[in-house]
């Protein structure tokens, strides 16, 4: 058994992860999981995603309900809308399939009735507002990166503000890990997801909340993800980033497992500075979450290294160097456009990140406003010309 599999199943046995079904082709077991009652199942995911997975398409044909109103970076209202669908369909099982956004939307919606006051109470950490008997949640990730299938929290947005549902009950009951499901994921989404997972591993590994156990998971995930990136050519115009080699099936599956292991690590520690600063890039400029995390990590690692010797070890420094290469390649291949922040826009980005106290409280070193601005400008990936002008040129980020 691979090291990543051992870590996942051990975490599941200890109650730190959902029950697991994993392996290439594991998704074919979905019809068996729900038994003979497809009408008591609600499948959450885009129509294209559901129709592309034979087991799910079969469930829908045989009477399972389908909810397809998912989108990147779901809002509080998106979760309430799905909650209304759950209230109407009365499923015993919710199957959430897709990236982290679809899974997070389902994680929040299945726990709360469609009442904004109840969800707001949950967002404040009050578990008394939960549904008394929520449906089971089965998470089926189709991207290798977010780790949402492992974590006891869900990210939602209210306007441009990120809010987090963080309750033990938020963790899915079962995760189905099948690397084959990531085969058709577009390069842009695949790379963004992997960069997100690398940041999860690094941030958990250096978090002030780390434990011996969380570091074991974080470092194992970091090393596997960084090795994968180092062996994969950065994106370039006209070339696919995804691995289509003869060994790609195994590599895809291990990548999915590594992302899940990173998810277990942040379940114990939560994320730190890179995620704190990333949220504003996503909310204000539409930068996909994984790219936003990578762009923030680029200058944050340099700041941490200069602020306190020994904060960043060699393996982490090498992982961030590889992350930068792929982020730069993604910009060159027009997979993403990063805003060039200056003046008020740069200050807003810094202030928004510093204001996420739940993440900054466990960041390994202090960051102040002038220091952040200096490192952002030195890094060059976000500091430069007017953000407003660049933002108008970013349609693919929408």
TrEMBL record:
InterPro entries in UniProt: ADH_Fe/GldA (IPR001670), ADH_Fe_C (IPR056798), Alcohol_dehydrogenase_Fe (IPR039697)
A Gene Ontology molecular function term of the record: alcohol dehydrogenase (NAD+) activity
UniProt entry keywords in alphabetical sequence: Oxidoreductase
All residue ranges annotated as the Fe-containing alcohol dehydrogenase-like C-terminal domain in the record: 192-304
SUPFAM superfamilies, alphabetized: Dehydroquinate synthase-like (SSF56796)
Superkingdom in the source lineage: Bacteria
Lipid biosynthesis recorded as keyword: no
The Alcohol dehydrogenase iron-type/glycerol dehydrogenase GldA domain, residue ranges: 19-178
Keyword Oxidoreductase: yes
Pfam annotation, one family: ADH_Fe_C
Family: Belongs to the iron-containing alcohol dehydrogenase family.
Stated name of the protein: Iron-containing alcohol dehydrogenase
Organism: Arthrobacter terricola
């Amino acid at each position: 058994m691979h090291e990543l599999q051992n870590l996942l199943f051990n975490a599941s046995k200890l109650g730190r992860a959902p029950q697991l079904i994993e392996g290439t082709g594991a998704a074919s077991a979905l019809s068996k999981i729900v038994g003979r009652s497809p009408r008591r199942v609600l499948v959450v995911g885009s129509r294209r995603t559901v129709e592309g997975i034979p087991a799910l398409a079969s469930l829908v044909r045989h009477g399972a309900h389908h909810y397809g109103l998912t989108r990147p970076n779901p809002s509080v209202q998106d979760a309430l809308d799905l909650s209304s669908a759950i209230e109407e369909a009365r499923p015993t099982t919710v199957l959430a399939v897709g990236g982290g956004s679809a899974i997070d939307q389902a994680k929040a919606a299945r726990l709360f009735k469609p009442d904004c006051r109840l969800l707001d109470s949950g967002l404040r950490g009050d578990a008394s507002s939960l549904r008394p008997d929520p449906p089971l949640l089965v998470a089926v990730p189709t991207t290798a990166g977010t780790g949402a299938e492992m974590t006891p929290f869900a990210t939602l947005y209210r306007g441009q503000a990120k809010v987090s549902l963080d309750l033990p009950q938020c963790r899915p009951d079962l995760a189905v890990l099948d690397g084959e499901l990531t085969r058709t994921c577009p390069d842009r989404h695949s790379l963004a997801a992997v960069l997100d997972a690398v940041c999860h591993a690094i941030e958990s590994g250096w978090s002030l909340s780390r434990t011996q156990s969380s570091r074991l998971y974080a470092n194992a995930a970091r090393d596997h993800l960084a090795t994968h990136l180092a062996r994969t050519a950065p994106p370039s115009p006209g070339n696919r980033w995804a691995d289509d080699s003869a060994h790609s099936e195994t590599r895809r599956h291990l990548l999915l497992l590594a992302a899940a292991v990173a998810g277990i690590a942040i379940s114990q520690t939560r994320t730190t500075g890179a995620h704190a600063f990333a949220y504003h890039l996503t909310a204000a400029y539409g930068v996909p979450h994984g790219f936003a995390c990578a762009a923030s990590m680029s200058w944050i690692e340099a700041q941490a290294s200069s602020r306190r010797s020994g904060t960043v070890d060699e393996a982490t420094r090498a992982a961030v160097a590889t992350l930068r290469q792929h982020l730069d390649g993604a910009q060159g291949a027009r997979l993403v456009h990063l805003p060039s922040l200056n003046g008020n826009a740069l200050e807003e980005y810094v202030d928004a990140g510093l204001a996420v106290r739940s993440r900054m409280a466990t960041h390994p070193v202090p960051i102040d406003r002038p220091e952040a601005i200096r490192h952002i400008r030195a890094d060059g990936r976000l500091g430069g010309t007017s953000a407003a002008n660049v933002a108008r040129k970013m349609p693919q980020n929408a």
